[in-house]
Design brief:
heterodimer; A: 262 residues; mainly alpha; 8 helices; 60% helix; B: 43% helix
């Protein structure tokens, strides 16, 4: 049984709309199965943004390749997802110099009143008024000191809570970095697996620059796409080095849709 | 100065980008932290970071520590310890029997 030639179907959409329609299984402007791992990086040709290593790695994944550190990466991702560090408070309380100053002033005021009270007693004068004033001042001082102690304790509690929260966030950051490093290593390993196939594909392209060193991203994009396996149509915004979309689809060995709106 | 410490990759990236774009307000950058100048433009950057990553940014205000900020006996204790103490003698032990402040009293002294 011979394999049917790849389809090249026009769609009455812009390239961006076509890409979105292919990616969204619920979007029936392009009816197709869900796209696999190659689509994020290679689902549109020529590519708009092209990161070689990402594209190579995506092609390798579409062929069922697994990076050697896949288990470590999965474990690190699970560990990261399981973290839910507490949030630090945003209003760090601290003792203000204002509190300190007002307590010092109140102490002086009390001392002054005590001095005046003694003096009036010594001279046998009436002390009723000054005693009342002294009671009020003493009470105000004691209240200010109580407030100060409470706010000191609250500041210490806030600091402890923030320390715990930031420690937990620091551990999460270390894990985020670990996941990032593992992902980078995984991409590099996957990219290495398809590089020879991409180089072979490049040599077969009908254009001038056919090595990884010389070729433009657009050209390399076509070569990587030929190596990758697609589960849904590729959006071909232009036939690139080929005379028409049908020729491009044949070379890419995959069904394509080509947007007819700009 | 304003000390900004970040606690996530996203916040660290934002800090890096802000510092690159506003070098004039950055006193010093350290990996995932930075010292910004204590001006309106430094504060604007710090507050933007806090707005974007509320729980992953720690903001503190710092100022240079100068000789006059450190009590004379504390300075003397530190200098003597660094110059005279044996390699593995902790300060606690060193201070005993000498005229240097005891560690337990230092914690309660505010500068």
């Amino acid at each position: 049984m011979s394999r049917l030639p790849p389809l090249a179907v026009p769609v009455d959409l812009s390239p961006a709309a076509a890409v979105a329609a292919v990616r969204d299984p619920a979007d029936d402007r392009v009816c197709c199965t869900s796209p696999g791992p190659a689509h994020d990086d290679l689902g549109r040709l020529p590519p708009r943004e092209f990161d070689r290593r990402r594209a190579f790695a995506a092609a390798a994944r579409s062929l069922g390749e697994r990076p050697p550190n896949a288990d470590a990466l999965a474990d690190a991702r699970t560990a990261l997802a399981s973290l839910d560090p507490p949030a630090p408070g945003t209003d760090g309380r601290s003792v203000t110099s204002e509190d300190t100053r007002s307590i010092a002033e109140l102490r002086e005021h009390v001392a002054r009143l005590q001095g005046r009270l003694r003096e009036r007693r010594d001279r046998g004068l009436d002390t009723e008024g000054i005693e009342a004033e002294l009671r009020a001042a003493t009470r105000a001082l004691s209240e200010a000191e109580t407030r100060r102690i409470a706010s000191d304790e609250a500041a210490v509690r806030d600091r402890e809570r923030n320390r715990t929260a930031f420690d937990a966030r620091e551990r999460r950051l270390e894990l985020e970095d670990r996941v990032g490093n593992l992902e980078r290593a995984a991409r590099a390993a996957l990219a290495d697996r398809v590089r020879p196939a991409v180089e072979t594909a490049l040599e077969r392209l009908p254009c001038a620059d056919r090595t990884l060193e010389d070729a433009a991203d657009v050209t390399i994009g076509f070569a990587v796409a030929r190596v990758a396996r697609f589960d849904a149509p590729l959006v071909l915004a232009s036939p690139g080095p080929f005379p028409n979309v049908a020729a491009a689809a044949r070379w890419l060995r995959t069904d394509v849709c080509y947007p007819v709106r700009s | 100065m304003l000390l900004v410490v970040t606690y996530s990759r996203a916040a660290r990236t934002t800090l890096r980008n802000l510092c690159r774009g506003h070098e004039e307000a950055v006193v010093r950058r350290f990996g995932r932290a930075a010292l910004l100048e204590a001006t309106g433009r430094g504060a604007l950057l710090a507050w933007r970071l806090r707005e974007r990553h509320p729980a992953d940014v720690q903001l503190e205000r710092t100022r240079p520590l100068q000789v006059g900020d450190v009590p004379a006996d504390v300075r003397a204790g530190a200098e003597a310890y660094e110059r005279e103490a044996e390699e593995y003698t902790p300060y606690e032990k060193f201070a005993v029997g000498r005229d240097h402040p005891a560690p337990e009293t230092l914690a309660d002294r505010e500068l």
